[in-house]
Please model this.
Amino acid sequence: MAREYETVIGLEVHVELATKTKIFCGCSTAFGAEPNTQTCPVCTGMPGSLPVLNRQVLEYAIAVGLATDCEITRHAKFDRKNYFYPDNPQNYQISQLYLPICRNGGVEIETAEGGAKRVGIHEIHMEEDAGKLIHDEWADCSLVDYNRSGVPLIEIVSEPDMRSAEEVIAYLEKLRLIIQYLGASDCKLQEGSMRADVNLSVREAGAEKFGTRTEMKNLNSFKAISRAIEGETERQIDLLESGEKVIQETRRWDDVKGESYAMRSKEDAQDYRYFPDPDLVPVVVSDEMLEEIRAKQPEFRTEKMKRYREEFGIPDYDIEIITASKHMADLFEAATAICGQPKKVSNWLMGETLRLMKEREVEVEDLRFSPENLAKLIALTDAGTINSSVAKEVFEAMFGENADPEKYVEEHGLKNVSDEGALQKTVEEVIAANPQSVADYRNGKEKAIGFLVGQTMKAMKGKADPAAVNRMLKELL
Amino acid sequence: MANIISDETIEYVGILAKLELSGEEREQAKSDMGRMLDYIDKLGELDTTGVEPMSHVFPVQNVFREDVVTNGDEREALLANAPEQKDGMFVVPKTFA
Model:
């Protein structure tokens, strides 16, 4: 007889903030620099160096807190979390334990059944990232690069409110959208600017008490998260069914093998011997500071969708897709502002853009064509300078390397032949060469004209406006 | 001494602090820690109802820097103290199997 189990999941989400500099020093956070070239005495833990808080980090953290319905802690401070590991040069991480900047929030997610559910946010705190360890396979040693040491993070700690992988993904997508709309981070799981640790336990359905939980790390895609949740749920149920106990520990997910293994027993907070960092002074959030940040909050998705409906008259489905990404919405608005044709801009985004993204596996954040060029392309088709199939070809070039459509059309000789004389000459030739189709058309077979249009387009190497060809054919017949 | 530190506790704290103590040092540490805890217990005798925990000794708050890059590349100086280096990085004992 199989017992029924319920999975209980809480998430710790780390988000790398999009600041230019680190949280406590003026070192650059730019990605991809040579190892250790973006370091200083502060972020490498040299004795006597003093950290100073980056104001932008505080503002982003408060902005995310306000957008997730949190209470903002008016008197916050930083604490030291003590542990020894070579990626942590100070032997402590500066974080927030006692008075984190945001508390008691939550976001609404849609459940699979179509209902709404609130996932509580226990707290959001500010902290510094650690350095990067590179394992030298040949020399049997590890190498440390401190460029990432001190890069600002916020850690968003949820309540154990989720019950399935679907709810976890919905929650993460919601957070990602909010943070991207705020411009506080690009939130890319693959690149590690958003990282989710999954705390999971199982209990018999209807039980009051939570089971013993494990924490799973190294999850860098939504797919890995789903698979890890399934795998860990199964592993814990198997343990309980065979009369064993779940051990509280941190496990590392191996997405290639599709299984997790124990990394270390999970420490208790007291093992980190937290204490207030005496090098950093308290942060007092005044009413003015809070109002200033509140006033700068952007238009979020729900408001944006409402405005699009009223302002642009494009279908709900288009609005849904376009606003699902801040980048796409920005593209749409910027191109529409230039050309004043929301429907046409939307058609390019919903049609060719989505098609090429899928075909070439491009993420929406990595779209390279500019709104200016999209507006130019629309203007070229409107003016009849190029026809719609040429426009698609030009768009592919824009999609690939943000080609300027005007230059591209010029360089590749793609302009429609607007010379009426040349067009008429070709049409006459086509009529003379296809007496059967001409006869069919004259006998009432309307469709025959399609063939003649096709022949003319072919003769003109596609550089004619099909509507103009059609018109001229009808005139001459 | 009201607080007695057990062998297990001192052993565990030693692991967390990455300290290896000799038998003599261990006894000394046990007694020092016990006395420190006694001293802290003294505070428990005070009525602190309504007193906010002190977060800093100086009456200073909100010291910020603006988000502007001020530091350049000082890798050479940084690595000058490294016992061993390779490819511009610190060499440390292998951390992961």
